[in-house]
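Feature request, filed as a ticket because there's no other form

It would be nice if the structure record came with a short human-readable summary line next to the tokens. Right now we just get the raw output. Example of a typical job, pasted below so the devs can see what we mean:
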Amino acid sequence: ARARNVGLSLALITRLLLLASISWIASLVTPLFTIPSIAGLPEFAVSGRDIILLIGGLFLIWKATHEIHNRLEGEEGHDDVKVRPSFTGVIIQIILLDIVFSLDSVITAVGIVDEIGVMVTAVVIAVGIMLIAAGPLSNFVNKHPTVKMLALAFLLLIGVSLLAEGLHQHIEKGYIYAAMGFSVLVEFLNLRSSRKKGTKPVVLHNPYSAQANAAADVGGTATGTTPRP
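Raw output as currently delivered:
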């Protein structure tokens, strides 16, 4: 619980800092350089926003794929495992991911709302809701491994969406939300069916050691997944 609260508190601070840097945020959409036309393709103007979205998208795709592999075919974690998700490393990941996820919403808010107080209030309320819901949601995901896999699939989808945005290929958010919503509905029906049949959930591999789980839980809260099965 403490680690989760630290992660969400840092998310709040990060978003407030982004709002306080509105002039800098607005400048991110200004092209930094232009890639000339190659093989008949049009010129491509690259801005700071594009770079952040491309890096964030690639990181999400790598992270989700890595976690899926470790959960299904990876080795079981032990206390003497060499690679552990350190508390500091996970905190850095949370901050970077939160910047990527918040960037577009902050840019949009700047164009819609003139009063920064309104935006700050909205951010505080949103993080407050996450603080309340994070615990029950984390416990639910831990009890249902298929939900964890679905959450990782959502990360892949979001990563592809960020890549597309960074390459100036707009994907309507409604399509993404519809796909996620339909997937959640199907999974809900599957969980109800499994409960009626008394089917036990599968046991996923846990690539983290017992000591590392506390730190890794912070990253799981930020990305919608948790490292323990």
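Something like this underneath would help us a lot:
Confidence is low (pLDDT under 50) at residues 78-83, 209-229.
Residues 11 and 98 are 6 Å apart (CA to CA).
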